[in-house]
Structures are given as structure tokens and as C-alpha cells.
Write a structure and sequence with these properties.
Beta-Lactamase, six-stranded antiparallel β-sheet, five-stranded parallel β-sheet, Rossmann fold
Length: 412
Amino acid sequence: MLKHQHKILFVDDDLENLRLAQRVFRKNITVLTAETIEKALTLLSEQEISLVISDQKMPEGSGLELLQEIAKHSPNTIRFLLTGLTDTEEIQTAISEDLIFGHIIKPYKLAELRLTISRALEFYELKQEVSSLQQDWQKTARETATLLESGSALSSISEVPHVLDRIVSILCKDFGYQACSIELIDRNSWELFVKASSGFPENYDKRRVTIEGAGLVSYVARTGKTTYLSDTSKDERYILQNPNTQSQLAVPLRVGEEIIGVLNIESGRLEAFSERDIFILSSIADKAAAIVQQAHLFDLVAKGKEEWEQTFDSISDGIFIFDRKKRLRRVNTSGARLLRQKFETLLGQYSHNLFPSEEKLELLKQAFETKQRITEKILIGEEELLMQATVDPIWDENKEISGCVVILREVI
């Protein structure tokens, strides 16, 4: 049973045969007729025709030539040759090369013709469904690739612009959208600025708009509501950026309950976004928000590390950090000055090479074994300065000792 309405075309210079064909099919099938090859080609160029049956003998040429021409320009159309001849080598070659679906021998019975065409149209619908499934699969594969790429872990803050640029580029190139941007909220000015964009006019990436201003992006940043304009010409919230934009979708970027920006997508087609599209794009927006948040955390860690290092180097006491094997991993400016050596020559040396008294006192060994602070006076350098050494064990996340910190303070 056919699921869709179909148009079929009979091509024959015998008008009586054409009138007969028009009476045979009614339900779900519209019958078109052409008494010349030229008219047949015109009809095919004007509308989608599911199936063509052409008589072999035509005044302007053969039906097989017509069907071969149709195969070039409309390969999905089912093609039958109507002939009074039995199987010929030419017809069999055309079938094997997929130039025609089959042939119908005249004279034919109407019931058999009706059955043959119905089955051929069922095959046509099946092919269309398979093609649609293939397109869906390809689209899903692209969507999955985008989600995986957008959700991949970052190893540094410098990767963030590249990943966000890649997301908007894929949405335009592989998903077929006209333009896309990721716009973030500046908490100092409460303006939206463009972090990544593709498909927009030149200098669009320089624009800044207020959250309280006009436009769909501002509206979504302000309300936190995913908003879809199926026809931008009918909604005052659309601000013209691309003259060909006909529909627009804006999805908020969230980190918990906080709105940090907007994923903005524009299409050159009316009603371009289905519910499935909105679901997928919302998932991509979630990934983009996670990437922005991860970048923010990277920034905080980097700033914290910088502040820690500044504090570490500003301490007047000498500070030495050793690993479990008693090799020096970090030293501050005061520590290097005490030993009268450069940082690059100190790092990696063992504690007993740096502190001669350590070979006898074994302060680090005591700290590792007792798992407690050790305090002792030791002599440092050629001048044998008397220093108070405090050794504290360092614990890792598994509550194991991974090293120790040595603080040297001059005894006055």
C-alpha cells in the first residue's frame, strides 16, 4: 500500500493509449501524459515525477533514449519501457546498467499494469526512505562529531578560542546554517561580546551590545529562554545582520543557574529548525558553556599560581621543596642566595649535596619516617652560617608522603 501521493507520466504518441492510462489510476496517483518526447522532458523539468512509462517507438526518437536522458537528470525516477518486442539484448543491457527499471510488453492487461506500477512505486518509496535514513545518519554523525569535539577536555586556556571557533565553523559548514556566533557576557559592563563567529559580515566580531538592548541575543541573555524565530521578518526582536537570514535560534549558555552568554544560529531558510535541531543545538550550547567555564577555572588557577609564586619568592627565609627521593624540585630567591647558586644548577640536586650537615643529621629521612616536623640547627655554605632548619613532610591526595619542605632561617 502506497504511503504518499505520486505523479506518474505516460509517454506515447497514441492518444487512445494515453486516455486509457488516465482512467486506470486514481487513488494516490496523478497521471500525466505526453504525446511527444519534448513535452515529456518539459513536464519532468517542472515537477517531481515518481515514475515514467514510455513507448519505445516515438516520432522524435526511441523511448529508450528518452529514459536514458531521464536517468541522467532524475536518477530516482522509476523508468519503464513499453514495447511490443520480447526481450532484446538492448533492453537487457539497459536493465543491467540501471538505465531502466524494467519493460512492459504490449498488449498488456490493465490489472497487471496496475499491479506492476503499484509495486514499482512501493519500491520508489522504500528508496526514498532509505535515502532519508542515510541523510539522517550522516547528519547524526556530524552532530555527534561536533558534540565530541566540543566536549573534549582542554589542556590549556590557549585552546579555548580554537575550540569555540571550530564549533561555529562546523555549525555553518557541516550543518548548513548561514551564520553562527558564541557571545559572552562581560560582567563589568553587562554587555555581550563576540567570542567566536562564522558567516557574519566583516567586523561583526567587534560588536558589543547591552543585555538590556534590542535584538534576540540580548533578549535570550536577559531572560535565559531558548528562543526560535521561524520567520525573522515577522518578529521585531530580529536585528538585521545578514540580508538572507529568514530564521534564527538563540540558546542561552548556562553554568548552573548563571547565564554566561548565548549561542546564536541563523539560517537562510524559513522554519529551518526542527525540535530535534533545537535539542542538538542546546546540547552543543551546554558543551560550549562548559568549555568557557573550564577556561575560567584555568584562568583562576593560573592567577593563583602566579600569586603563589610571587609570595613564595618574596619570603625572606630560604625555602626548599624536595621530592620523595630527596631531590630538590623548587627553591625561592632567598634559598638560592643562601647557597650562592643559580636556580638551574640547584634543581635536581640531592639534599646531602646542598647541606653538608644533612649527611650526618638525615633530617629529611627523620621527617619521612616519623611523619612529623623536624627542627635542627645546621651549617650552610662555605661561611658555615648557622641556620635553623625546619623540615615538614608533604602529603598527597592518598595521604602518602610525597616529599618535604625545608625552611632555613638564620640564627641570630
